[in-house]
Design goal:
- The complex is a heterotetramer, with two copies of chain A (293 residues) and two copies of chain B (261 residues).
- Chain A has 293 residues and is of the alpha/beta class.
- Chain A is 32% helix and 22% strand.
- Chain A contains eleven helices and eleven strands.
- In chain A, the strands form two sheets. In chain A, strands 1, 2, 3, 4, 8, 9, 10 and 11 form an eight-stranded mixed beta sheet that branches.
- The N and C termini of chain A lie far apart (42 Å).
- In chain B, the strands form four sheets. A five-stranded mixed beta sheet of chain B has the order 5-10-11-12-13, with helices on both faces.
- In chain B, α1 packs across α2.
- The chains are: A alpha/beta (293), B alpha/beta (261).
- Chains in contact: A-B, A-C, A-D, B-D, C-D.
- Chains A and B meet through β3, α4, α5 and α6 of A and α3, β9, α4 and α5 of B.
């Protein structure tokens, strides 16, 4: 009855053409190993749901996995725009369905609660609702105007956590989930990649620190350094030096191809990826909080 | 003092002075100047100001501003860490938090903001990051402060390519009709400070920075800026203000926001 | 075994046997028999059954059932403690939790329940506690189990004084029209076990407890109970089941729910 | 700038005729000292919002404070009906506006978010929405039917916590808030009564354990044993023996008057109340979890 799976097995749960929600926020806490596994498998025609994303969505687009992106924001934070996401959008290679942070959350909650919509005042007066009027409708009510956000129901959601057990119990430190818990609520299948697998008794010893109960998680994948190059506070910051090099390499297909192969795709797991990007010195550089690159 | 400060310090000080003592603010990504301003205001005229770092950490005392305003290095000494942004969002909606700062690739005369696309949405010339939380909070938070380090006609435009964030909308009464409280209070740029008088809800020049003329602002703005009578000069930051800013941010993260900086 | 068990043990065993291995259940206040049934099922045929005690504590192993099913003494050894019922409520809506048990002062043939008033709402003869969470979960949770230790015509009535909780509503199709998944599966009383066949969604006698006749049930029920052919006898609890129940609940809290008990 | 107030000052924030929300759940975690203070002040014509209540609402009714009760459920759990609540409802002395747990939460959230309503599937098909059709409306939407729960916005909410500081930061152990956090979100004024006032540094030393941030709380009242006779897990259980005696006393006005005076109203604070009901032996009896009376 163990929920442990290999990364490839878990990535195989994402069927071509389906909707996958990716956790994390900008340069922080994203399930990057899972994104690499999807790209490595050649996943295709995915609709990606990402509330506020960065390298995760950029890698999935670079890997040719994405047909449509339901997003609030995608960027490399202070480092610049997300180059593959940007280029694919500008060339019309992907459809970008822009919502916003709170409206995506409302859509996920509508799905979780099996409701036709969740209301919010977010987005009123902006051009965003007009991008998908069938799913986000401005409604005048005698007690006030609201935006009705229709359901966003991912087939699979993937989040990265600090600790998990074979039953699917997950712990995020210090319970900082950014907005991942909204994905966990809404998706039909939930995959947690975890820095380490711990015994069940770890959870029973401090049950108030459990973040996701086992019955909400369908698969657990051990993936140490699985958020790299994004951060996993409080254990490590993001790798700003890597991001700078990545952005430089993205300027030219000739420099990008070897970078993508050697520095992103080929390394077989998180430790190998870090080794391909500086090894122990990199870990040392990012280990202090804040990823002071 | 004169001369012994940068435009970044002038902007931070101008922003900070507009934050009253009942400010309860929070910050998102890439918001070095607002974070400097919150910390400066808290150390000077607004000791009760509440600041929630990264929308996660309540009232922290970081030794210095780190390289990301979402970094946990900003959370030192917090009295609370929220587990999720959604929990915190209630406080942005119920008025317990009341202040937020943002900027954008384009800003129009009513303080509406575009951070989504340059060009048509379906076939953009530049695909920008997207509205993100600004699209929400511009509707939900009553006190909005805009800042821009690139006061040019390409940023301050007559017509947005896309309205990602709601300012005063189409003008007076628009937010009220939608039931949105408050609205943008102020714009602090590298040239001037502007506000939005109730009669027009269009940008009005409130002060020009030292060395900047009204005509400079007009030339740098893609729409007609309202000018009422004599326009004063933005006060320079005091020596104390500059010292505090440099102590708070010794590695000059705030200067990353300056054009070419 | 014969005779060496109480009606409480028979009811708990009958309820437990209906909980499949994919049951993910939670309990509210004053729910001793369901809690006994969850723990019994988990120890026998349904090792993977998930039980969230008090809607707070996931998968606990209390040494014994305390005097309240909301007590923290029920939470020993849990793998998670929820901080708020609202957080947990998402899992009741999205199907991750799928089972809930309740009872009421009045129950009608379609398994609708009244726990609000006896008599008219505005001028009640008896003001009961109210619908509470049962009013919600009867709509939101697909697998509902009803139990009653007082199978009498005053409880099993033709017409409720108030519909606090939704069973099969007005009959077949009603829940579907409202978009409500599942519905009541079973009623376990001190006399019998009943279910709700799809064609009528009215109570049908599935078994009578040892020593009870079909006519006894008819006489104790205020509406026409459906009887299809021969009605079997409810299996007695096994010795193992009785031993487990008495170990789980050595101070007989479950018997508090028996009339006059 | 300290938010510390006396119990009487804080109770004075509840104006006659206003709406006050009371925390706790049945026999657990209710701000009983605050309820006594309201009754002692002779508060009148209150609308009480209580999601799932017991002794708290019964005492407010017994004290003559209540005109209207917006409730999901009121009872003494396994001990029986709440006698004053029941009697006043049956005699028409109070209006009972019955909602349910989740629909009250939805109403509170609508108020918190300044929305015209929050949708839910709870309550569909029941008689409850018909009790207040102007506030809970069944709506058919192309994607499904929902119940629109209009705003419930308390003037004051009162919750009892384990620890608080002068800035209003509050900690509930082990973050078990039952449904109190919904009241805190929605009310214009929030009062926290607390077992003990602790230094600010207590919160800064473990910020992930803070339950309500200071900026959400307007007044803090030190009230040790302030939940008695309801429980305050994990520090003490409820006092079942007291409840049994209370219910017996309620059967007859002649026995109730002295009980109400000596065993409920006259003792000036929580410790005095416990002393009037058995003192140290009572504390010993209820100190173990579960309140094994």
């Amino acid at each position: 009855m163990s929920k442990l799976e290999t990364m490839d097995e878990a990535a195989g749960r994402v069927v071509d053409g389906s909707t996958v929600a990716i956790g994390g926020l900008l340069m922080n806490g994203a399930p990057m190993e899972f994104c690499r596994a999807l790209a490595r498998r050649g996943a295709k025609d995915l609709t990606v749901v990402a509330i506020v994303a960065g390298p995760s969505v950029d890698w999935l687009v670079a890997g040719g996995c994405v047909r449509r992106a339901i997003i609030g924001l995608v960027s490399m934070e202070g480092f610049g725009l997300a180059p593959h996401f940007r280029r694919a959008a500008e060339r019309g290679e992907i459809d970008v369905e822009e919502w916003s942070e709170h409206t995506i959350i409302c859509g996920l909650q509508a799905a979780a609660a099996r409701l036709p919509f969740m209301p919010t005042k977010a987005g009123l007066g902006t051009d965003m609702p007009g991008l998908h009027p069938e799913r986000t409708e401005v409604v005048e009510h005698p007690r006030g105007t609201y935006l009705a956000c229709g359901p966003i129901r991912p087939d699979v959601a993937v989040v990265h956590v600090h600790e998990a057990d074979v039953n699917g119990n997950c712990r995020v430190l210090p319970k900082l989930v950014w907005m991942d818990s909204e994905l966990v609520k809404a998706a039909d299948t939930v995959v947690a990649t975890t820095e380490r697998v711990v015994p069940e008794r770890t959870f029973r010893a401090a049950p108030e620190r459990t973040t996701y109960p086992g019955f909400t998680v369908d698969a657990v994948v051990e993936a140490p350094l699985g958020a790299y190059p994004t951060s996993l506070f409080p254990w490590h910051g993001y790798d700003g030096a890597f991001v700078t090099e990545y952005l430089a390499a993205c300027r030219d297909p000739e420099t990008f191809a070897p970078f993508w192969r050697d520095r992103v795709m080929d390394p077989e797991d998180g430790p190998a990826l870090v080794d391909a990007n500086g090894g122990a010195a990199t870990l040392l550089r990012i280990r202090s909080a804040g990823g002071t690159a | 003092m004169s001369g012994d400060y940068g435009i970044d310090e002038l902007m931070v000080a101008a922003l900070a002075r507009e934050m009253p003592n009942d400010t309860r603010a929070f910050n998102g990504a890439a918001s070095f100047m607002p974070v400097c301003a919150f910390m400066l205001a808290r150390e000077t005229h607004a000791p009760d100001l509440v600041w929630v770092a990264s929308s996660i950490a309540v009232d922290p005392s970081p030794p210095r501003i780190p390289e990301s305003t979402l970094s946990d290095a900003l959370w030192d000494g917090a009295s609370m860490l929220h587990s999720s942004a959604f929990d915190f969002w209630w406080y942005a909606q119920n008025g317990r938090l009341n202040s937020f700062c943002f900027r954008g690739a384009q800003i129009d005369a009513h303080g509406n903001v575009n951070n989504t696309v340059i060009g048509p949405y379906a076939t953009p010339k530049v695909r920008l990051p997207g509205g993100g939380g600004m699209a929400d909070l511009s509707c939900q938070v009553p006190r909005v402060y805009l800042w821009s380090t690139t006061h040019t006609p390409r940023v301050f435009v007559e017509t947005l390519d896309f309205r990602s964030g709601m300012g005063w909308g189409d003008g007076p009464g628009h937010r009220e009709r939608l039931g949105l409280e408050g609205g943008p209070r102020l714009v602090v740029t590298n040239l001037c400070v502007m506000d939005f008088p109730p009669e027009t809800r269009r940008m009005r020049l409130r002060s020009v920075h030292p060395g900047v003329t009204v005509d400079d602002v007009r030339a740098a703005t893609g729409f007609e800026v309202q000018v009422d009578g004599d326009v004063p000069t933005t006060p320079e930051p005091t020596r104390e203000e500059v010292e505090i800013i440099r102590r708070i941010d010794p590695t000059d993260m705030r200067k990353r926001e300056l054009a070419g900086g």
